[in-house]
Amino acid sequence: MVIPFNKSPVAANSKKYIAQALSQKTSGDGEFSKKCSAWVEARFGTSKALLTTSGSHALDMAAHLCGVKTGDEIIMSSFTFTSTANAFAGRNATIVFVDINPKTMNIDERLIEAAITDKTRVIVPMHYAGVSCDMDEINRIAQKYNLLVVEDAAQGVMSEYKNKALGTLSDFGCFSFHETKNYSMGEGGALLIRNTKNIQEAEIIREKGTNRSLFFRGEVDKYSWIDWGSSYLPSEINAAYLWSQLEIADKINNERLTLWDTYYELLNPLKKDGYIELPHVPDNCRHNAHIFYIKVENSKIQSGLLTFLKNADIGAAFHYVPLHSSEAGRKFGRFHGEDKFTTKESSRLIRLPMYYGLKESNIIKVARSVNSFFKG
């Protein structure tokens, strides 16, 4: 592709820090891991941030910390990645899908309460494209029914809801630092913990079920197997790569926002003429330009435009096939209420190229190609 859909972010110090990691400690929780965790805690105001091997593993840890067990029910949107559901299906819970708000593509908070039963344990809002769900209402419902809330903020690093960072608005928040995200470890993520009482258990889970973290801090004279756990520590090589980007996090964020605004300005005439819809960002949200998407009239036009852009050497993609319509979705869950928007809106959405280092000239070419498809 002349204009690829995505490129991993590379900062000026990326190779330098990776080389440092190779010459020092390469296993987890070294100098660079500690720098990244401390940065997340200070920048976003969370009690604890633990780097993980993926956003999926952050969700897995959150599900365990919530005490999810066989027979529990978990409420989420069907318009999300498989990891959101896998974390809870893996603990034999039933996934209860509800419809989305077509304006934001997020879970429709007005439908959550009707889906609650005496088996409901957790609500899992996923902040699509770095635009927050209505967390005030979701937390209100959770408090009313004594439920836990886990934010899938995989796409939400640097985004805010009412001036508070996504991932810090609930019991647990889960970041992704996958290569497609605004800040990348190649593969990686982070678990954000609000209540300090959960920190020690989280450290045990992350350290293969041992109290190794306490040992390294000198709080015990030797470490041993305490509970169930796994190896969720990313290597220092991954953390070094991430740290090189967190050092310039605002620069990356501001550049992406500029690119996002350029897309919006250039494609707004097509919106006014009724050919497409553009992303909606509520007034109380500050997004991070993770995704720039458009919505066309139907799936036929979606398919046609994706092919047209591919033939013009422009990478574009759809997002997502609704989970409830998949084989695993039917096996592990059910849809509550009417699928009024989830399937319809997912079949209209197209994601355009968006990454740190994308040139304005590339965006002009993409916008011209989209315009040519509709008006050429």
**What is the CATH homology-level superfamily of the largest domain?**
Type I PLP-dependent aspartate aminotransferase-like (Major domain)
Our Rg estimate from Cα atoms comes to 21 Å
Cα distance, first to last residue? 22 Å
Largest sheet: 8 strands, mixed
Strand order of the largest sheet: 1-11-10-7-6-2-3-14
Number of helices: 14
Estimate nothing, just give the exact number of structural domains. 2
The best one-word shape is: globular
Q: What does the average pLDDT come to? A: 97
Beta-strand share of residues: 5-15%
By CATH reckoning, the class of the largest domain would read: Alpha Beta
Q: What helical percentage do the residues reach?
A: 25-40%
CATH topology of the largest domain: Aspartate Aminotransferase, domain 2
Helix-strand category: alpha/beta
Give a short summary of the structure.
Helices cover 39% and strands 15% of the residues.
Structure in words:
The longest helix is centred in the last third of the chain and has 24 residues, at 249-272. Helix content is 39%, strand content 15%. Strand 4 and strand 5 form a beta hairpin. It has helices at 14-23, 31-44, 55-65, 82-89, 112-115, 135-144, 199-206, 212-216, 236-246, 249-272, 299-311, 327-332, 342-346, 360-375; strands at 48-52, 73-77, 94-98, 100-101, 106-107, 120-124, 148-152, 160-161, 164-165, 172-176, 189-193, 285-286, 292-295, 333-335, 349-352. The strands form four sheets. Strands 1-11-10-7-6-2-3-14 form an eight-stranded mixed sheet, sandwiched between helices. It has 14 helices and 15 strands. It has two domains: 14-246, 3-Layer(aba) Sandwich (Aspartate Aminotransferase, domain 2); 249-375, Aspartate Aminotransferase, domain 1. It is globular. The mean pLDDT is 97. The chain has 376 residues and is an alpha/beta fold. The two termini are 22 Å apart.
